[in-house]
Specification:
Helix content is about 20%, strand content about 35%. By secondary structure, the chain is of the alpha+beta class. It is globular and about 55 Å long.
Length: about 300
Amino acid sequence: MKSYRYTVVDVFTTEPLAGNPLAVFPDASTLDETTMQKIARELNLAETAFVLPATRQDCTARVRIFTPIKEMAFAGHPTVGTAFVLLQKHMVAPNSSAFLLEEEIGPIAVRIEAGQRPLIWVRMPPIREGRCYDAALCAGVLGLEPEDLLPIQPQLLSAGNPTVIVAAKDKAAVDRAWLELAGLKTLQGTENESVCVFLFTPTPDGAYSRMFAPEYGIDEEPATGSSTGPLAAYMIRHNLVSGQPGTRFVSEQGTKMGRRSWLHVEVHGKDAADGIYVGGHVTPVAEAFMTLSSPAAMATER
């Protein structure tokens, strides 16, 4: 038997029991992929992160991220939350203001904005544009009427996780939405890849949002960094926020589910597809141990 320490943090919030919960295993070097997936299924959070030694000299650590049913090449709230845990456990150089984390998608840049509560920023991977959708189709998939949406064509965008971005007229329409699972299939591309559906409405501060990802084992997620980068690109494209370098805004997500989250967005470059950071605060809530049979014993059991 072996015990593994892990930390539970709430990401994109300064309050405990709000935001998006995340479990981080800061020393997962003896865990295999199958066991990591089983642990993520056991904990049943949106994602669980496992820290391993980096294979690249320019990266501080390697991070593998799992939903209850699959591994993710990149995810925002696990990256922010893991960076916080590494800082808290002194697993990065003292007073570090920037470092790289190695994820399946490649090296991810992390920046620390000092303050009473550090604001942890993650640079989004390059955002890929996909196909556009019929607004009435997307409204139906979300249990809404076409007139509930803004006159802007929904579009598939991806910063590692394909996301269908849909713009609603107001918060009431966002809160009324529910995802029709059979209709979700109609939003998939020719490669039949899994997609998230991200519904938002513009606000004076930025956006009010919800995100659905049942094909990732997540019916609804309270905060989604990897979809907020594409949201920013979409809002800039349609003149819903400024695309000037230095622009900041926030996306409020998770409120409908009782886990309000605040995702900060900062535009860094002239090209929104390659110059977007998503950041947030992190609140620690628990330290725990998970005791498992040795990998050899578990393999024998299988």
